[in-house]
Amino acid sequence: MTAFPAAPLPAAPAPGRAAVVAGVGGYVPPNLVTNEDLVARLDTSDEWIRTRTGIATRHVVSPGTATSDLAVEAGRRALKSADDSQVDAVVLATTTPDHICPATAPAVATRLGLSGVPAFDVAAVCTGFLYALAAGSGLIAGGIAERVLVIAADAFTTIIDPQDRGTAVIFADGAGAVVLRAGSPREPGAVGPIVLGSDGENSDLIGVPAGGSRQRSSGVPAAPGEEFFKMNGRATYRQAVERMTETSLRSLAAAGWQPHQVDRFAAHQANARILTAVAERLGIEPERQLSNIERVGNTGGASIPLLLAQASEEGSLVAGDRVLMTAFGGGLAWGAATVTWPAL
Ligand code: UT7
Question: pTM of the entire structure?
Answer without folding.
Answer: 0.95
